[in-house]
Amino acid sequence: MSGVSTYGQSKSDLRVLAFDVFGTVVDWRSGVMREFAAIARERRLTVDPGAVADDWRRRYRPAMDEVREGRRPWAVMDELHRGTFREVIRKFSMEALTESDIDRLVLAWHHLPPWSDASAGLSEMRDLYILTTLSNGGMALLVDLVHGGYLPFDCVLSTELVRSYKPDPRVYQLVPSLLGVRAEQVMMVAAHADDLAAARGQGLRTAFVRRPQEWGTGRVKDPDFPVDINANDFHDLAAQLGA
Amino acid sequence: MSGVSTYGQSKSDLRVLAFDVFGTVVDWRSGVMREFAAIARERRLTVDPGAVADDWRRRYRPAMDEVREGRRPWAVMDELHRGTFREVIRKFSMEALTESDIDRLVLAWHHLPPWSDASAGLSEMRDLYILTTLSNGGMALLVDLVHGGYLPFDCVLSTELVRSYKPDPRVYQLVPSLLGVRAEQVMMVAAHADDLAAARGQGLRTAFVRRPQEWGTGRVKDPDFPVDINANDFHDLAAQLGA
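The joint structure predicted for all components is written out below.
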């Protein structure tokens, strides 16, 4: 709960909660595993769906970094996923998969299940704060997640709007610049310390949400710097925010 | 109901409904009149609130055109409203108004009442289609309207994202480009023929919604070109869309 007192000093001034999505709002691992397991049965593959999901996800940050650092042209997350999944295919010798299977798997990221507390917790916070996404997912992908998950966001913001990826500072500046508030009136909510560190560097407040099942391990690595809020789930976050 | 048959031919392919907001979803005239009437009482002004609202609104298109045509730098709608209201003050000799009164009036556009059928009608359409705004209002303004009106949009898109105004073709291209659909999978919904004409020019489908009280006159000027749907309100639109 480090930093709660700092937060409390200007609580009434907080206007916008900006949510990371993958791992924070939705459970990418279960969603990808489920789709992969269905396809694996059809193709008679005996590869562990959890290992595939985890390996695919680990290849995501390096691909984004290539774009962010200008080593490859802008590409939305779907395109990055398509490219990195070819590497996963080689690693697990899954050449039996067809192009249509790959399409299905890339599309699975558009229909990931929200964590069980996400929709209700967001509803609790919605009356007091403006809720937006702030995610590496492309606009189309995020809109599909918001729509399919009945997630009560007021706004969808994606790093696509600056054609870069986290932790590019321009990503975090999107929220104050488009929503007409000062940086300190925005709180970044994420299950990942690196996202919060970058948000903090741009003057946003920070809320860490513990998602011990993001990688299926039950373990969480708390940020090693002070955050304004450290919450166990969205209900706890709502309660700490006075909602 | 012109064009309904054309629309029906590929009905299942329609994915996104893009809504104009001022006049189509929200009742700018009543909202502005109410705020102005309250301020006029405080300042002992005897100016007709309807005349002020209508005059202010008529100055909006020329101001946007200046930006769109590059005759003045980019400015969000709030800034245009602030500038055009100074002209309204001169016209109606309302020099008694203070800067804080002007702030209140500019902000009134962030809290306009939705038409009575808007929220429920959108909810009816939401299960079958992705719902986005596509408005000249800035992102902050639109997010306030969506939030305050409990409007179940999946996404907020503003002409601010291309730093221009309707009928700039880039405005209409925002929807297919950001939401990952083809232009013909998008239907522009508006109470204004010129908006629909521009959308049609970019390959979007068109739905005209009759809003006879937009200017308080009870009169509607139907488009003089074929639209895919001509609806009396959002419930009628939902019904014609099979929702």
